[in-house]
Structure formats: C-alpha cells, structure tokens
Amino acid sequence: MIKRAWTYSLAALAFCYVACDSGQTAGSSMETENSIAVLTQLADGTPAARMDVIVRPENYLPGADELGSDSLYQLHFETDEWGRVVLSDVPTGSYVIEARNDSLNLKGFAKIKYVEADSTTPLTVEVSEPTKVSGHVGLPQMVRRSATVSVQGLDYQVPMDSTGYFEFESLPSGDVEIVAFVNDAAEDSVTEYGRIAMNVGGQSGEGELYLGDSAYVKKYFVFDDFENGAGDWTPSASHNASVNFDIVSAGLDRKGKAAHFVCVRDSAAEWDWALIGRDLGGFVDMSELDSIRFWARGSVKSRISFAFDMLVNTDSVTSTDNIKSWRHFDVDTVWTRYTVIPSQLDTADSNGGNVGWDAVKNRVTKISIFGAMGTEVWVDDIEVYGYGIFDPYAPVKKNALKKSDSKKKD
Asked: Could you read off the pLDDT of 164-186 as tens digits, one per residue?
C-alpha cells in the first residue's frame, strides 16, 4: 500500500456559457477565443441536444477529504438543440468534460489538455448508454476497512462492502482510472489500496476489476461460470429424494449459461436433501481463503446452502462419508449475488455433519450447493478470492480406486 495525500491547487475556473441560436452555424457561433467549443453527439453523428456538460480537473478524485467542497471543482452547462456549447475564458490545464442526460440514459466524456491562449479548441464528446462496472479491492480479512472506490476526473464513487466488492451501476464509456482509497482525517491524507486503468465499454468478457497489492490481486479465479457445460459437477440426493441437473440459459436479464437443478422429494422424511457438487480431485488447503462469491436464484423464495466438504473415507466417494462446513442463504426469485466468508460460516453443530470451518479448512475435497426440496435453483459465476487456483494434493479418487482394487484381489 502507498500512503499519500492528494492536494489540488487549481485556480478558480471562470467559464461563461455562450448561447447558440438555432439559426447560427457551428462556425459562427463557436468562434470564441480562449475557449473550448464542445459538440455532443451520438455514435452515428446525430447531435445530442440538451445534454448537461460538466467540467472537472483531470486530477479530481471524488470522496477525498482534501478536495473540500466538490461543487467548487465541477461546473455545469447545457448544450443547445444542435448539441453545442462554448466554454469561454478557460485557464490552461487538463480537464475531463462529461456530457450526460440521465433521463435519456446517455453519458460520455472526453479529456483535454487546454494550452491554447488565443484560439478556439474544438472538442467532440460522444454519448452512449452507460456500462455497469464491478470489481474487488484486494484486502486480506485482517485489513478490512471501509474504502471508497472512485473514478478519477469524474464524479462517480461507491463504497466497497465487507469483502472488498464494489459496483458502479452506470459509467460512461472511455478510458478511465479507478482508484480505491481510505480517508485518514487525522493525518489529512488518504491511503491508496490500488488503482487500475480500464476502457469502460470496451473490455467485455474479461471479468471484473481487481485493485490492491499485485500479489494479492493475482489470487483470484473463476471456479466455474458453466459456459462450457456441467464439467465435473455432479448431482446427489438422499435415498428418499431425487435431483434433476442440467446447464441452461441463465435468463432473467443475465447473459450466458447457468447451472440448474430441481430437488424432488420422494417421501415425507424431513432429512431428505439434494445437491450439486464439484470434486476438487484431492485435498485442498483453503486456510487462506478470503471469500467466495456466486450468483443464485430460485423458482420461489427458499433456502440454499453452500458447503465445503471433506471426504473422511477414501474407500468411498458418497456424500454420506463427508463432513462439512457450510452457510445457509435465503435465495430470492431474482438473480442475487451471495458472499461466503470463512468467519461467517455456521459454527459446528450436529446438523448435516457440520463440523465447522477449522475442522475442514486444511483438507477440503469438494464444494457443494444444496437446494430446498420441491424448488428449482439456478447458480452462476462462482468466483474465488484469495487463491490463483486450487491446488489439490493426495488425489482422493485415485487412492480410493487403488484400495478398492486391492480388496477385489483379496
């Protein structure tokens, strides 16, 4: 982590709005010395009328205490029906000029280094539908603090949650720097946890952003997104229940594929259960696990359970030979993201073989997701924080086969 104080010594900006009559041409209405002539338009070149135009210094960082009143560092204007506005008497410097109309769901921005002292500087800002951007601040559990995540030069800031996760609902497209920091009012400074440059709207399919210590940031991977089918996932059920498992379209405003299983009760026994699980191929030491995040929904509001299983009998791979540590979640009928944190797992009890995290964390052999009886469950995008990949050792399946073979020979 790098500790530093951001200070901003920008002189007061004296901007004047120059009205553009509809009968005037772009040339005649925008030839003003010491000014920035802004034209806002859609991707096809159509003028974007009546857009709010906001000017901020390039080094503006929303949420940092040193900035004082944010309103002093952003000035507002509006384009005419031709998408034009002139910002006159502009001091030299580097700026980010954003155009937006929230009611039309259109946003865009452009960066400019204004150095001309005696001529008009033209600038075109293209607007389009904004993009949702999410990510994770790389903070180990022992360093959990409330951090702010901001977009430098634009007035967008969000808090991270207890796992370091953050989400911007609506960012304009373009090259930005996203910064994670914590204010320290006592020292009048901020602690920066990380920053990352990205092209909003141009990095589809590359997953989330991860800010923080480079060694920690690398400790992340997608456990499964189900885009390549069921893979090593298998369904299981008790003797008095059954489960139907397949990979389907995620649906409900979610792209791609998802795991789907239906739990069917064959009797009135209260202990019936059904699940989908993925064998890790051996014992995995998860003692350094930070968290696991996954998406889920149900056909009705119900309960699911996320479990870390440990196989205790290598002569068999049935679920009844597992002990586990788990946590239960109330699942909704809409896609919701859930977070599994080791410290928040259920304490050891007699329910379903739950022995607590400390008993299984060094030798996890399987990850399972239980669903409630009589309901459908969809699961998608299971992501692991704190590991670059799970590295199993002493493969359970191979050992089990060897022991089984030896018994047959006897």
From this structure: 788 899 999 999 999 888 776 66
CA 277 to chain centre: 25
Beta bridge partners of 267: none
List, for residues 351-393, the tens digit of each pLDDT value.
778 999 999 999 999 999 998 777 899 999 998 888 888 888 6
Burial class (CB in 10 A: 0-12, 13-18, 19+), 11: exposed
Cβ atoms of 128 and 201 closer than 8 Å: yes
- Rg (Cα) of the chain, in Å, rounded? 28
**Tokens in use for 121?**
């500087």
Which residues belong to CATH 2.60.40.10 in the chain?
131-214
Q: Are residues 355 and 348 in contact, defined by beta-carbon separation less than 8 angstroms?
A: yes
Residues of each domain in the chain carrying CATH 2.60.40.1120: 15-126
Please name the residues in contact with 197: beta carbons below 8 A apart, sequence gap of 6 or more: 175, 176, 177, 178
Q: Note the pTM of the prediction, 2 decimals.
A: 0.58
In the β-sheet with 302-311, what is the strand arrangement from edge to edge? 233-237, 274-284, 364-371, 302-311, 322-331
* Nearest Cα to Cα of residue 3 among 152, 146, 194: 194
| Dist CA 164 CA 192 (whole Å) | 14
- The string of DSSP codes covering 157-217 is EEE--TTSEEEEEEE-SEEEEEEEEEEETTTTEEEEEEEEEEEETS-TTS--EEEE-HHHH
CA nearest 67: which of 6, 149, 11?
6
Alpha carbons 203 and 247: distance in angstroms, whole number: 26
Third-level CATH fold of 15-126? Immunoglobulin-like (2.60.40)
- 388: tokens are 């670059």
Task: Give dist(CA 151, CA 62) in Å, integer.
Answer: 7
Length of the chain measured in residues? 410
Name the architecture of domain 131-214: Sandwich (2.60)
Could you tell me the CA-to-CA distances from 85 to 25, 108, 235 in Å, in that order? 12, 15, 62
Tokens of 87: 């910002």
Residue 101 three-state SS: strand
Q: State in words which class domain 224-401 has.
A: mainly beta
